[in-house]
Amino acid sequence: MVKQKFNARFLWWHAVILWMIVVVVFFAGWDFVETHSFPDLDRETMRIAHLIRDALGAVVTSVLALLAVSLQFRRQALMAEEKRALNVKLRLFYSAFENSSDAILITDLTGRMGQTNRAFTDLFGYTQEEALGKGTNLLRSAHSSDEFYQKMWASIQTRGEWKGEIVNRDKWGEEIPIWLTITPIYEGERKIGYMGIEIDLREKKQLEERLLRAEKLAAIGQMSAQVAHEIRNPLSSVSLNTELLVDEITHVKGEEAVEAKRLLNSISSEVDRLSAICDEYLRLSSLPKPVFDTVQVNDVLRQLSSFLAAGADRMRIEVRMELDPALQNICADSRQLEQAFLNLMKNAFEAMPEGGLLSIETHSRASGVEILFSDTGRGMVEGIRKKLYDPFFTTKDKGTGLGMTITLQIIEQHGGKIECLSAYGRGTTFSVYLPLTPEVS
Ligand SMILES: Nc1ncnc2c1ncn2[C@@H]1O[C@H](COP(=O)(O)OP(=O)(O)OP(=O)(O)O)[C@@H](O)[C@H]1O
Ligand SMILES: [Mg+2]
């Protein structure tokens, strides 16, 4: 473009100089021919000859001037056309950049951010103005070591690009798994910066986790059937025999008999606990298909809270309910919902051993209902929150680690969603969304 501009100006000056030379040569040539070839011309002939010369000169200069002006006009028209075409191209590229669904950022050679697009702002929370001039380490998370970054830059220098998975951090500190591609940007031969395209991998990761969980559940399902067969039957005979033994010694008196009864009771309660664990495993392996009916979630929650009221009082836990009076009925299996909500409430109680507040809210949403369970308990660190739905993951001495697995399974069977927000030491909120009619995936 610069070269073309230079050529056009160069041509213009050529035309002007050529024009001046032609004019000078014409008049000088005329004088020369006149004085050397016709020295004896009379005054009248000379006057006529000069008239003809001036007229010819005027015609020649006018034609040349016209030519030069039209050349100039044509040049300007070409430049305007070129500028318009360039603007169209620029707008097209800018729109592609700005509307890309993947986050794009352009940096200078030192890694300082220049242009960023809308998807970048949506993904990381930084506006173009906030990102401008800052280093890319603004997005760096604790997952990427100095060594990792050194290797990345070495690859860009040697291979000209870098592609790979990386964990970045948004404006609020949330870590986001990203598929990143970095390529250099050139102006002619000169490298002037880098372009980074960042693809959000959160959805893909969630899907992978779900698949993994489903696989684990399938394996557990098989195992549970065996457990039921191998353990539950002997357990019930242990339980029966313990009861028989208790009956046998009811009439025996004395200190030893009291001790024997105490031991038998302890056996009995441990056997019950083992049976309950077996039941839980079984429920997980063969969670029945939901039987859908019209359900008012507010009613389910009210029943549950009155069922748990005595326990809550004992633990000095206040259960506060703010139920949307206009909450729509949904199509669901009320027994399964009860089970899922009970698991969430039980976990909340267990997270507040010194007492606290569990608030339960319901809200109408466009095509479903939302239920929030917020406790003021111990909360969870990120590591625990991530494993929350894993089968058998528990931090409790007597927990099976199946409560949340079953809860998630129930909610997914209803085509719903569950999200957890937790801050260690400050409490936990579970948000459950259930559609009006289940679109079971
Ligand atoms: N509201 C909560 N506050 C703090 N931690 C929680 C909360 N809910 C769940 N957790 C954590 O998640 C873990 C898994 O919960 P889950 O309900 O699956 O199993 P569990 O409660 O340990 O055992 P079970 O439900 O079989 O009694 C818990 O051990 C606990 O560490
Ligand atoms: Mg639990």
Fold blueprint:
Elements: H1 2-37, H2 43-99, E1 103-107, E2 113-116, H3 118-124, H4 128-131, H5 146-159, E3 162-169, E4 175-187, E5 190-200, H6 202-248, H7 255-285, E6 293-295, H8 297-314, E7 317-322, E8 330-332, H9 334-350, E9 356-365, E10 368-375, H10 382-387, H11 403-413, E11 417-423, E12 427-435
Parallel strand pairs: 7-9
Antiparallel strand pairs: 1-2, 1-5, 3-4, 4-5, 6-8, 9-10, 10-12, 11-12
The protein binds adenosine-5'-triphosphate and magnesium ion.
Q: What are the key terms here?
A:
alpha+beta, Beta-Lactamase, Helix Hairpins, 4 domains, 56% helix, rod-shaped
How would you describe what is shown here?
- There is one protein chain.
- It is built from 11 helices and 12 strands.
- With 441 residues, the chain is α+β, with helices and mostly antiparallel strands.
- The chain has 4 domains: 96 residues; 101 residues, 2-Layer Sandwich (Beta-Lactamase), CATH 3.30.450; 81 residues, Helix Hairpins; 143 residues, 2-Layer Sandwich (Heat Shock Protein 90).
- The radius of gyration is 43 Å and the shape is rod-shaped.
- The two termini are 56 Å apart.
